[in-house]
Amino acid sequence: MQNQVDFISAHNGGIQMFSRDGLVGWGNTPESVAYVLNTKGMAESIMGSSSIDFASEEGFDSDDGASFLFKKALELV
After folding, report:
1. Which pTM value belongs to this model?
2. Are 8 and 14 in contact (CB under 8 A)?
3. Using CA atoms in the order 27, 9, 76, 25, what is the torsion angle rounded to 10 degrees?
4. What angle, rounded to 10 degrees, do the helices at 30-40 and 65-76 form?
5. ∠51-56-61 over CA atoms, to 5°?
6. Which of 20, 27, 28, 29 is 20 to 30 A away from residue 58, measured at CA?
7. Burial grade of 60 (CB within 10 A; 0-12, 13-18, 19 or more)
8. pLDDT at 1
9. Contacts of 60 (CB under 8 A, 6+ apart)
10. Which residues of 12-48 are buried (b: 16+ CB within 10 A; e: fewer)?
11. What is the 3-state secondary structure (H, E, C) of the chain?
């Protein structure tokens, strides 16, 4: 599969997903993040920006908000 997600970052209360070619999607619900992961595919490993650890600076209610959102999305994939 081409354009597989290999990098994520927290942005504006959601998660941006990138492939080696650039931005491939954004979602702010588990369903929307899972949709991108399902349609673009996932690389063997997905790295995360430091913004994932400091998600409150990117519009989440807490620093673990982005990690929690991504975890919930993975449960739907």
Report:
1. 0.95
2. no
3. 40
4. 60
5. 140
6. 20
7. buried
8. 74
9. 10, 13, 66, 69
10. eebbbbbbeeeebbebbebebbbbbbeebbbeeebee
11. CCCCEEEEEEECCEEEEEECCEEEEEECCHHHHHHHHHHHCEEEEEEECHHHCCHHHHCCCCCCHHHHHHHHHHHHC
Residue 61 CB-density burial (10 A; 0-12 exposed, 13-18 middle, 19+ buried): exposed
Distance CA 49, CA 17 (A): 10
The structure tokens 């491939």 sit at 24
Per-residue pLDDT of the chain (77 residues; tens, 9 = 90+): 778 999 999 999 999 999 999 999 999 999 999 999 999 999 999 999 999 999 999 999 999 999 999 999 999 99
